[in-house]
Amino acid sequence: MDYLEAILLGIIQGATEFLPISSSGHLLLIPSILNLSEPDLNAIAFAHQGTLLAVLVYFRHDLWSILTAVLEGLRIRQPMLDPNSRLGWYIAVGTVPAVIGGLFFAATIEDKLSDPTIVAAMLIVTGIILLFGERIRTANRTLHQMRWSDAIAIGLAQTFALIPGISRSGITITTGLGRGLDRSPAARYSFLLGVPAIAGAGLIAMTELAQSTTITEQLPLLAVTFIASAVVGYACIHFLLTWVRRHNLYLFAFYCITFGTLFLVITAI
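The chain above was modelled as a monomer; its predicted structure follows.
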């Protein structure tokens, strides 16, 4: 991997982790299209840490408010009293399905469903999911109006993002819309719910990174990937939250369907 590839990896991870267009899908399809080697585990680990930093910095006030509210709720033995405390517990409950799915099925899914053709097809599915989400949106509830059933439904939906090509943010936002959340709170909750998921993926990658014998010589390239991922990730979080206040998700749906279809056509020629 050279510096151009390091920057490209950071940009892809930073943008596609938060925009509803599938980071796993792009990390597999773009190298295939450009005839590049797949990024190694070291680079992926640093790219994940970059997106983790982006979401932690962007939502630092929200996360602090949630953490302090949860702790205060436990102290006074009324964990569901404060809206931020409830939100924290919803995030915790919503994370459980993804953890279980990752522990038991991630390796099998990666082994069976990482073929670029399958990934492109799943990217098209992501586009269809986004279109469907806009069609079933029926209400405009806020985060403070969420219920346990919403947290469980969105958490279950997040497990499907283990499949390469299925966007985590896309499927969780769509499920939020289906549960009656407005676009903006659905997107915001998707990002907050993504913190444990992104941190978990980064932790696994960093554990594997600790066993690497080439980490020292790769550090300059990995630093470039980390910075690019963090900067682009932060910008894309802000962009999507701004976009959904006034626009629908059709742009991202059409992009996913078009990109996936073009990839299938190109590879079939």
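The mean pLDDT is 90.
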